[in-house]
Design a protein that fits this description.
Helices cover 33% and strands 19% of the residues. By secondary structure, the chain is of the alpha+beta class. A hairpin with a 2-residue loop joins strand 7 and strand 8.
C-alpha cells in the first residue's frame, strides 16, 4: 500500500470510531435525560424511579400479563418502574418484560406497561381481558364465570378464589371496564391494568407512554373507586384530559 492509501485508511478508521463514539454518547445522553424526566414526573406523588424494581413491588400469581402465549413467570422481570414510597408501593407504573431464558439475555417480546393502584377492600379478585385473535377466530367460549357477571362479547373473565369471597361489594358494570381496552386484574386490594400487546404498537416507559396508560386507565380506576385516581389524574396534562372529555 502506498503512503496515500495508509493515510486514507487511518482517516476513514478515525471517522468511523468518532461516529461510533458520538452515537454511543447520544444514546447515553438520551438515557440520562429520560431518567431525569421520569424522576421529575413522579416527584409530586412521591413516586421513585427505579431500575430493576422487582424487589420493591409485589404482584400476584397468576398475573394478568402471563396470559401472553409462551410467557414464563420465572423469567419475567420488572425492569423500570415508578414506585410509591408507601409500604405497598402503590400507586406504581412499571415496565414488565418477559425473557426466553433465565439469564435475561433474549427477550420474548416488547415490554408491557402496567399501572398498579389501590382499590377498596371487598372487591372480588378477578381477571378481565380481551380475547386473542386465535380465540376470537375460533369463537372459543369460556363458561367458568357465572352468568350474573354479564361478561361483554369478545372478552374473557376469570374469578380468582372463592366466588363469594367478595360478595360484600359487587363489581361495577363490566362493559364500562371493557371500554378501556385494558387487561385488568384485581387481587386483594390492588388493581393492575395493562395494555394488550399489538404488533404495531410498542409500549415504551416514557412520559408519553405513562401519560397514555394513565389516561386510558382512569375510567377503570374511577369505576372501582380507587383512592389513587385523583392523584394520578394530576400527572396527565390538562389539555390531554380536555381532549378526552370533548371526544378528541
Amino acid at each position: 500500500m502506498s503512503g496515500f492509501e495508509w493515510v486514507a485508511l487511518v482517516l476513514v478508521s478515525t471517522v468511523l470510531v468518532a461516529l461510533a463514539l458520538l452515537t454511543a454518547l447520544w444514546f447515553e445522553t438520551q438515557r440520562l435525560e429520560d431518567a431525569w424526566a421520569l424522576s421529575r414526573l413522579g416527584e409530586p406523588l412521591g413516586l421513585r424511579y427505579r431500575v430493576l424494581g422487582r424487589d420493591y413491588l409485589a404482584h400476584p400469581e397468576p398475573f394478568v400479563v402471563h396470559e401472553k402465549p409462551g410467557a414464563a413467570a420465572e423469567n419475567s422481570v420488572i425492569e423500570r418502574s415508578l414506585v410509591s414510597t408507601r409500604a405497598q408501593g402503590l400507586p406504581a407504573v412499571f415496565e414488565y418484560v418477559t425473557y426466553r431464558d433465565p439469564m435475561r439475555l433474549r427477550r420474548f417480546g416488547p415490554p408491557f406497561l402496567v399501572l398498579a393502584v389501590r382499590v377498596p377492600a371487598g372487591i372480588p379478585s378477578f381477571r378481565l381481558r380481551p380475547k386473542g385473535l386465535f380465540e376470537a377466530f375460533l369463537n372459543i367460549a369460556h363458561r367458568d364465570v357465572p352468568q350474573r357477571y354479564r361478561v361483554p362479547p369478545g372478552w374473557v373473565m376469570h374469578i380468582d378464589g372463592p366466588e363469594d369471597a367478595g360478595s360484600e361489594q359487587p363489581l361495577p358494570d363490566l362493559r364500562r371496564l371493557a371500554k378501556s381496552g385494558l387487561w385488568i386484574q384485581v387481587s386483594g386490594n390492588a388493581l393492575f391494568a395493562a395494555r394488550p400487546l399489538k404488533p404495531w404498537q410498542v409500549s415504551c416507559f416514557t412520559q408519553e407512554g405513562i401519560h397514555a396508560l394513565i389516561r386510558q386507565g382512569l375510567p377503570v380506576l374511577q369505576a372501582l373507586d380507587s383512592p389513587d385516581a385523583p392523584q394520578l389524574e394530576t400527572l396527565v396534562p390538562p389539555r390531554t384530559l380536555h381532549a378526552q372529555a370533548t371526544g378528541g
